[in-house]
Write a structure and sequence with these properties.
Distance between the termini: 75 Å
Structural class: alpha+beta
Number of strands: 16
Radius of gyration: 36 Å
Helix content: 40-55%
Shape: extended
Strand content: 5-15%
Number of helices: 22
């Protein structure tokens, strides 16, 4: 494909999109950097011990929101699209779910990518992750043609040759920093046809990816933050990297790699993944957007004025606390008054000269006077009240009630606390749904890569298919064929993830007990029914069992048992 293209023209074509994006999103990037600095409290005043005081409400809110929308590792759930009798579809769902479960638990990149993307969503306003297919290759010897009988004595046999074969396969999920992602400038995500990410590669990685000639020619434009003298040493080569753009063009159905410092595009390949949505990334997690632009508005910007007001109040509180000190003045002629505070200890007396004159002036009260603290104390109390009011305004803007933050008024009724919780959940529900859909879409992309590109042996190995119940093993081969059949797999299998919210640890145990209770109650009532109703009762039982997640692996046993009961119920009729 590369030979038929003008690689210089290809690079100029995509550089226009990159430059337009950088100009359009430049202000947002600066705003995002400021929000991150505010969250990390990066300021010279904090490092130098300045008297400047802040109330980092942004850090507090982020530490509350992230656990509310992402509390644990999402678990993949694969099921039949229609809950009917489809043993092949059921076994295929089990195999794919176990394969996804293995990759999610074995490699920590998925959980890390989702967590980091959520953090980017609540800070600069956009989070993104990227899925890629990585086959691990190895060289194996290919045996030469066997020597036939007519090979004359003394002739040398052909030397064995080597060939690359797939040793192992995986589909890692890469977290993409919010500054390293881009797309064509448009209004909504549905109009996006071009996405890219920045990938830093060192010299060895460039040579391995693009070959010796191109790899040596690419400029290393990403240098470490060290001195110029240190960068000239051979040991610093590993710290120098080149910024490579990996672009996915949906309209042209191709993938392009380029560098700003190269004259031409580095490589152009057709789309080999064949994903349903084309892009190896889901729709990003966005903060506030409108239908006329995909430039997000960070959540902090919605209450930054109130946060500045809160900082101002805290700074004034700090100043008044410094002023809230016991200070006063005294008659310089009465040196003993000073000695009371500098030398005086318990039960120690300080002599006073001219006692009669000292007593005539009113004693200690007549020669010393204190700075009044009542006004400072009242102002300090007013500032404390103002601080709580400013925090309450921020909580109203962000939608975090007292219940979400873990505090409540003991005088409030249960109904009032429920209303607060509902108020907070209404605000967070949209974000929770977006995070769940983001995590689910990553799983769908991984599942498509597994079904399209993994070898059947790899799928069976990572899913532990050999450990399935005896009743399911007869369907393993048709199930693998179903997974690798793209149209049928879409129609019969549905991929999702469980809730990302914090759940009770007893949920799985309760689900199993609920299934046992429901089945036991049904069987006790079904025993009393006439034998003619056995087929109907069996289908009703399967209909109920398919609704339980815990019953997924037991469904084959239920099928076999119910089929045996049907045959037993039909035996008297055959004998008659």
């Amino acid at each position: 494909m590369e030979k038929d293209l003008d690689m210089a023209s290809v690079k100029r074509r995509y550089m226009l999109d990159i430059e337009l994006y950088e100009r359009t999103y430049g202000d947002w990037k600066e705003r995002g950097k400021n929000v991150v600095k505010r969250y990390r409290d990066e300021r010279k005043a904090a490092q130098e011990g300045s008297s400047e005081n802040r109330y980092n409400i942004l850090w507090s809110n982020v530490q509350t929101i992230i656990p509310a929308v992402f509390a644990r590792l999402p678990q993949p759930e694969v099921s039949r699209r229609y809950k009917d009798k489809d043993p092949v579809g059921r076994v295929a769902s089990l195999i794919l779910e176990r394969a996804l479960q293995y990759e999610v638990e074995q490699y920590k990149d998925y959980a890390s990518a989702v967590k980091n993307s959520v953090e980017d969503r609540v800070l600069p306003g956009r989070g993104i992750a990227w899925v890629r297919y990585t086959p691990i290759m190895e060289n194996v010897e290919v045996p030469s043609a066997q020597i036939t009988e007519d090979v004359q004595e003394g002739e040398e046999a052909a030397e064995p040759q080597t060939a690359e074969v797939i040793k192992y396969e995986c589909s890692p999920v890469d977290y993409v920093n919010w500054e390293d992602f881009g797309h064509n400038v448009t209004r909504t995500w549905e109009e996006v046809y071009l996405v890219w990410r920045k990938v830093p590669l060192d010299r060895a990685e460039l040579i391995k990816r693009f070959g010796e000639e191109k790899g040596r020619a690419i400029a290393l434009d990403m240098k470490a933050n060290i001195s110029e003298d240190a960068l000239t040493t051979p040991e610093s080569e590993s710290l120098k990297k080149a910024c490579i753009y990996e672009l996915w063009d949906k309209k042209a159905d191709r993938v392009v790699w380029l560098s700003k410092n190269s004259e031409t595009a580095l490589d152009v390949q057709p789309n080999k993944l064949g994903l349903e949505s084309f892009f190896p990334c889901p729709q990003p997690l966005y903060a506030t957007t409108t239908t006329d632009s995909l430039i997000p508005v960070p959540d902090y910007c919605q209450y930054q004025d109130q946060a500045k007001e809160l900082d101002l109040i805290c700074e004034r509180i700090h100043g008044l606390i410094d002023a809230l000190m016991v200070k006063g003045v005294y008659d310089a002629a009465q040196d003993g008054i000073k000695r009371i505070f500098t030398e005086g200890t318990n039960t120690k007396l300080i002599p006073v000269d001219q006692w009669a004159m000292f007593a005539e002036k009113g004693g200690i009260k007549g020669v010393i006077d204190w700075v009044p603290l009542e006004m400072i104390y009242q102002a300090l109390n007013a500032l404390y009240i103002a601080r709580e009011q400013a925090k309450q305004v921020i909580y109203e803007i962000t939608g975090m009630s007292d219940i979400v933050r873990g505090s409540s008024d003991p005088r409030e009724t249960l109904g009032a606390q429920k209303l607060k919780g509902q108020f907070a959940s209404m605000r967070l529900k949209k974000m929770q749904g977006a995070v769940a859909e983001f995590a689910t879409e990553l799983l769908r992309i991984k599942a498509q890569i597994i079904c399209k590109h993994y070898q059947p042996e790899t799928i069976m190995m990572i899913s532990g298919a050999d450990e399935l119940p005896e009743q399911d093993r007869q369907y393993m081969q048709p199930a693998i064929e179903l997974l690798r059949s793209d149209p049928m797999c879409k129609f019969r299998i549905e991929i999702s993830s469980d809730s990302l919210l914090e759940i009770d640890e007893q949920q799985e145990k309760e689900s199993r007990m609920e299934l046992l209770a429901a089945v036991g109650q049904f069987i006790r009532e079904a025993i009393q029914a006439p034998p003619e109703l056995a087929p109907l009762l069996g289908e009703l039982l399967l209909f109920a069992v398919r609704g339980f997640k815990a019953g997924k692996t037991l469904e084959a046993v239920f099928d076999e048992t119910i089929e045996a009961l049907k045959q037993k119920a039909a035996q008297p009729k055959q004998q008659q």
